[in-house]
Design a protein that fits this description.
Strand 3 (17-19) and strand 4 form a beta hairpin. It is elongated, with a radius of gyration of 25 Å. The chain has 5 helices and 6 strands; from the N terminus they run ββββαααββαα. The longest helix has 13 residues, at 45-57. The chain is of the alpha+beta class. The strands form 3 sheets. The protein has a two-stranded antiparallel ribbon with strand order 1-2. A two-stranded antiparallel sheet has the order 3-4. The protein has a two-stranded antiparallel sheet with strand order 5-6.
Length: 140
């Protein structure tokens, strides 16, 4: 039994089509080669990153890359040139209430801000605590 692929318009043996019980004849209308090519095209990492930034922050990948350059490829908080994290990418720091984008941070600075929920008071208490227990504390 043969079927014509709706993409490439070639008639091929039915075994060249993926099974799909919801389709007539129990096979897909697109041949395996065309399906693989379509899936590969949609799995472009640059496109995926662009969609991620647009969906989550309302910026494009080009906007993100401009921010990286404007910051001199450094964390806006600690100044490190190593973003860290699983994908070794800068974190887009944003206000969770308003959605306003602030700057790009390394993984560690982003985690700290998330843990303290952007509270300056909490950060001040942590700073005072670290200074209190620091061996290099300046005596008053």
């Amino acid at each position: 039994m043969d079927r014509t692929c709706f993409r490439c318009k070639k008639t091929k043996d039915i075994s060249k089509f993926y099974t799909d019980k919801s389709k007539t004849g129990g096979r897909n209308y697109e041949c395996k080669n065309c399906t693989k090519a379509r899936v590969k095209a949609t799995r472009d990492p640059e496109r995926a990153r662009d969609l991620f930034y647009r969906r989550n922050y309302g910026i494009s990948l080009a906007d993100f890359n401009r921010m990286v350059l404007l910051q001199g490829t450094k964390c806006a908080c600690c100044g490190t040139s190593k973003p860290g994290g699983k994908h070794n990418q800068w974190c887009v720091d944003h206000n969770h209430v308003t959605g306003d984008i602030r700057e790009l941070l390394c993984k560690d600075c982003n985690i700290v801000l998330g843990i303290v929920r952007d509270s300056p008071e909490h950060l001040q208490r942590l700073t005072e605590y670290v200074l209190k227990h620091s061996k290099h504390r300046v005596a008053k």
